[in-house]
Write a structure and sequence with these properties.
Order of helices and strands of chain A: HHHHHHHHH
Distance between the termini of chain A: 46 Å
Radius of gyration of chain A: 19 Å
Keywords (chains A, B): DNA-binding
Number of domains of chain A: 2
Number of helices of chain A: 9
GO molecular function, one term (chains A, B): DNA-binding transcription factor activity
Strand content of chain A: under 5%
Oligomer: homodimer
Protein name (chains A, B): Transcriptional regulator, TetR family
DNA sequence: ACCGTAAACGGACTTTACCCCGCTAATATT
DNA sequence: AATATTAGCGGGGTAAAGTCCGTTTACGGT
């Protein structure tokens, strides 16, 4: 039993063959991406490579962006597990602010590891382009803020703003070459530290020094 | 003399006919959007409606998203003027924190007023999907943070995170129906207040903090 | 005014996302 | 086990994005 605690996909009432095809398509998509990059993953190409029909691809994922959203949710499951039942400070057991800081670090790593997928996932969306309507990040941050109780008029709004502060840089502000191998680690580290500074200030935690 | 202080487009070395066509295309695009909504603005349609060739449309704007980026930059010029030379607290003259709070309010209004354009603008971008590589928001926030000197290890990172906290909700987290006429004003107000709370906390100097 | 050049124009062409609907096969019912 | 039901499958069709290249036109030099 390793089904995620929060149902991320509509995998629930799916027929057996449909589920099998979904998994196979995701694998094929990952392979195509690894080989040629995200921009070269086309619907026809994916259908052909997987040996399935184009209609099937669209039924499963709705749109091109939907494939990348599914891919992202799939990767996100690992992070989700670590957050919900892994060891502290990311998982339960640590103080809320520690968990918040740890979550930021984990999320930055996640986004940098998967930035190509993440950016491809926000193409074209009519409605909310981000993963789910209330992403994992926002829910978790909200929960921790409810424990920390920072002095703001609306904790839900703060959760949304912090989610954006965490995801926004990688998703819409950074250049592609900020993800280039050379700069990658330094940029990551800067944003991890920055997140720590930011939530430290918001949660009135000033004892940790910085250089 | 109403040329923007910061050159937002490559309007500089453009031939006269090119500049004329650019302006005409933007007007036509605005008209099409007002009539049928952003999703119905097609490159063929825009070319036909403007009486120009499709090649021209692509040469001018590079891609579909490019049209919306140009439209957004055009609108943003007004905000830019108010920030650079308008009356305080948005313009120069007020205390930095006041200006920062006022900027947030103005930016939220701008994004809510132009959210359809703004979302259409972030389609498909290979590189940084947002307007310019270093958007107005980030530059201005960075400048104000340099005056306020909040106790963080990297002010550039904080500027990026606050820019994301300001733009992210409207661009990637809110549902479309949060922009529906009924909820619109309340949601705006919540985010304006939230921004004020957020930067208030970030910029509050503590006794132990450094200058 | 004329001319040469470089930029801009236009629209046919290619590629690709997305739709449709007749066909197939997995599950529910008896 | 046979049948009815319903979801899933497949691939051809449409429309819209993006490319190319021959033609036209602005503009600086003479």
């Amino acid at each position: 039993m390793d089904r995620p605690v929060v149902q991320v996909s509509k995998a629930g009432g799916e027929r057996a063959d449909a589920a099998r095809n979904r998994a196979h398509l995701l694998d094929t998509a990952r392979a195509l991406m690894a080989e040629h990059g995200a921009t070269k993953v086309t619907m026809d190409g994916l259908a052909a490579s997987s040996g399935l029909g184009k209609g099937t691809v669209f039924r499963r994922f709705g749109s091109r962006a939907g494939i990348f959203r599914a891919l992202l949710e799939d990767e996100e499951t690992k992070l989700q597990q670590a957050v919900l039942s892994g060891p502290p400070p990311l998982g339960p057991g640590a103080a809320p602010l520690e968990r918040l800081i740890a979550y930021g670090a984990a999320r930055v790593d996640f986004l940098f590891d998967n930035y190509e997928i993440a950016r491809a996932a926000l193409d074209g969306g009519q409605s909310a382009p981000m993963g789910a309507q209330t992403p994992l990040s926002r829910i978790h941050i909200r929960m921790l803020l409810d424990l920390i109780k920072p002095p703001v008029s609306d904790r839900g709004v703060l959760a949304t703003q912090l989610t954006a502060a965490l995801d926004g840089p990688a998703l819409l502000l950074l250049h592609v070459d900020d993800f280039a191998d050379a700069k990658n680690d330094q940029v990551r580290a800067k944003f991890v530290q920055g997140w720590s500074d930011l939530v430290g200030l918001v949660c009135r935690h000033t004892s940790t020094g910085h250089g």
